[in-house]
Amino acid sequence: MLNRVDTNIKRSASDPLYNPVAAITKEGVRETSCYVTQETFYENFELENFPFDLQRLKIMISVIPKDGRPYFIIPREGYVNQMKELPNWNVLKPEFSSIPDRPNPLMIYSLTLQRKWQWYVSNHMLVLGMLSSTVFYAQTIPVSDLNDRGAITFTLLLTVTAFKYTISDSLPKISYMTFMDYYILSNFMMNFVIIAENVIVGRLWDEEDT
User: What average pLDDT does the structure give for the chain?
Assistant: First the structure.
């Protein structure tokens, strides 16, 4: 997650986009200080619910007093106003909170990103589900035609496998299972169950004939 403030932009106090990073007050006198900095923040995404995941990103700003006087940070929402639209994410409204009752006052800026899941559903999950569902066509073939049933189910299994490798480049490369991984695995399991059912029913049919 890249978080950056452009240090080349000069604003006046009358500019509606001009807002201090933190308003610091001390007893009897109110002082407002504005700090402009350029930073890059990184956070590992939790992708267990991919592609329906929400990513909650946090930035914590703290003041370390050096003169022994009490300081407080007052959140000002207006200074975070240059967030650009992300192509694969919906940026939800940022949240601000502060913890003043501590030696070093703390302000927490939370940003929630919601993945745009519609593309994954329409291009991956829906297509894969339709391909896997066609395996039930084998149930319309007479039980005695085990070879025809097997040809259809194994062909569809190869088709689903090829589709899985086709979409693999657009899926995250991580070491744990995501919702999408479980969905793909369930489609493979459904194909294997139908293949096993064809074999068992076909053998029982042969035994009855003999």
Answer: 77
